[in-house]
User: Which sequence fits this backbone?
């Protein structure tokens, strides 16, 4: 692919809406995300006169004019736009000068991508679904090699290390099952629910953490031993809490003083109900699991968007872990939220109990 074609593709499929204006303020180009946000394609705008430019005095036109006048990037938060008959929406907008006086307008409207309320309800865009399918395909390929290598190692190493090799095999099998059933974001099939011992889930997560991301950190447990079984998919719940513990471990380790801690706590909250989606009644979700760390806390600027894809503080992170976690919790009819301040961040997951007569979770 030629460099020019590559740049064009990157613009077209970028996850955030983007619009390019000429030096005269006329609409030159817009990507797919912008078409979804604004509700009309570029060709339709041209036929209806939208190619003449943004409405005079509109917030985006003013932002573009400031960018041209100052000769540098400018940003505004909470800009209200109402273009081409589309209902008013609020976005965070950035204007960047390009060659020949053109201006690139980048828009961020959280609801246009994936919205997550306190119940974890998600609505994904095509670009997110496509990304999920691509990642699922790429994940499956190396899993077989990892599994085979772990089996070979297990046959030639001592009994103690063989247990770790067996853990690798079990985890690759679990990940493959998750990918097969979910295809990350693109699979809307409900989880395969059964009674699940939530403490068995947390024990598995802890075993993985102490031999990996949480190695060298202090892990504390405060469990309510009388909890009834949860109603859920054990593999998916392992993934939920493994994601949360991984994030907690990274935050605690970033303290840099060797005193990083992670706490896992469970409790039963009588009368807790989670509101359903549109047209659905609220539902009981009294099983509470908390993952707590003593790291620096979630930056204030990210808190509102923390469960959306591509939001991350990590230099090399993809920003998909918490978005997927929220989707999995929502699929269980549960809730995920968090509280954060310097020195303490607590992620809380609420889950429903197994209905009577569905059997008991195995110890």
Assistant:
């Amino acid at each position: 692919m030629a460099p020019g074609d590559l740049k064009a593709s990157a613009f077209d499929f970028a996850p955030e809406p983007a619009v390019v204006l000429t030096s005269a303020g006329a609409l030159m180009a817009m990507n797919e995300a912008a078409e979804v946000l604004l509700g009309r394609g570029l060709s339709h705008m041209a036929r209806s006169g939208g190619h003449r430019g943004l409405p005079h005095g509109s917030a985006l036109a003013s932002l573009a004019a400031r960018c041209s006048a100052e000769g540098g990037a400018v940003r505004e938060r909470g800009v209200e736009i109402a273009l081409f008959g589309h209902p008013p929406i609020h976005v965070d907008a950035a204007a960047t000068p390009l060659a020949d006086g053109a201006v690139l307008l980048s828009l961020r409207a959280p609801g246009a991508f994936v919205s997550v309320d306190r119940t974890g309800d998600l609505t994904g865009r095509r670009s997110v679904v496509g990304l999920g399918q691509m990642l699922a395909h790429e994940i499956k390929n190396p899993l077989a090699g990892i599994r085979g290598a772990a089996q070979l190692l297990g046959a030639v190493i001592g009994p103690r290390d063989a247990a770790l090799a067996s853990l690798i095999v079990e985890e690759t099998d679990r990940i493959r099952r998750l990918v097969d059933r979910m295809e990350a974001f693109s699979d809307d099939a409900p989880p395969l629910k059964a009674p699940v011992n939530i403490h068995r889930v947390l024990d598995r997560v802890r075993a993985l953490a102490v031999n990996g991301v949480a190695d060298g950190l202090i892990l504390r447990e405060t469990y309510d031993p009388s909890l009834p079984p949860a109603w859920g998919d054990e593999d998916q719940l392992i993934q939920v809490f493994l994601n949360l513990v991984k994030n907690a471990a990274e935050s605690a380790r970033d303290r840099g003083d060797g005193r990083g801690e992670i706490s896992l706590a469970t409790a039963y909250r009588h009368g807790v109900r989670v509101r359903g989606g549109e047209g659905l009644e609220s539902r009981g979700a009294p099983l509470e699991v908390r993952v707590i760390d003593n790291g620096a806390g979630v930056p204030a600027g990210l808190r509102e968007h923390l469960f959306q894809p591509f939001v991350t503080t990590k230099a090399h992170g993809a920003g998909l872990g918490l978005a997927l976690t929220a989707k999995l919790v929502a699929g269980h009819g549960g809730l995920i939220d968090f509280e954060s301040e310097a020195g303490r961040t607590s992620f809380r997951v609420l889950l429903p109990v197994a209905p009577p007569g569905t059997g008991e979770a195995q110890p």
In short: The chain has two domains: 3-112, 126-351. The domain at 126-351 is CATH 3.30.565.10 (Heat Shock Protein 90).
